[in-house]
Amino acid sequence: MPVYPTELKVMNEPLKIKLSIANRVYPLTINPEQEEGLRLAAQKIDNTVKKFEQSYSVQDKQDVLAMCALQFAAKSEQTNINKNSLNDSIEQRLRDLNQRLDNVLNEHVL
């Protein structure tokens, strides 16, 4: 089925959605390609809020949401640290390989 220019315009128009987080509804205007990620994130936040509420006797939603924010931020930072560490390791291995190749080439070519 062909896609006509008017249909493309509709697909790129902002989308109005409502997300429920910690029993509060948040209306958002987003790009359509953001919808899935935002809905999954809201669901993760809700699930984490429920876990904290069940595990700890926290009375204030703000405290639970702060704990959620800390957990998600820490996870994100740890992922970045792990990626940087992996990148450093890969870069070092590439430098070592390059040095070995240079040594072999210098022995046999020169």
Helix content: over 70%
**SSE sequence, one letter per element:** HEEHH
**Which structural class fits the helix and strand makeup?**
alpha+beta
The number of strands is 2
Number of domains: 1
Radius of gyration: 25 Å
Low-pLDDT regions = none
The average pLDDT is 88
- The proportion of strand residues reads 5-15%
The number of helices is: 3
- Per the principal axes of the C-alpha atoms, what is the gross shape? elongated
Strand order of the largest sheet: 1-2
Distance N to C terminus: 63 Å
Verbal overview:
The protein has 110 residues and is an alpha+beta fold. The chain has one domain. It contains 3 helices and 2 strands, in the order αββαα. A two-stranded antiparallel sheet has the order 1-2. Strand 1 and strand 2 (24-30) form a beta hairpin. The longest helix has 49 residues, at 61-109. The radius of gyration is 25 Å and the shape is elongated. The chain starts with a helix and ends with a helix. The mean pLDDT is 88.
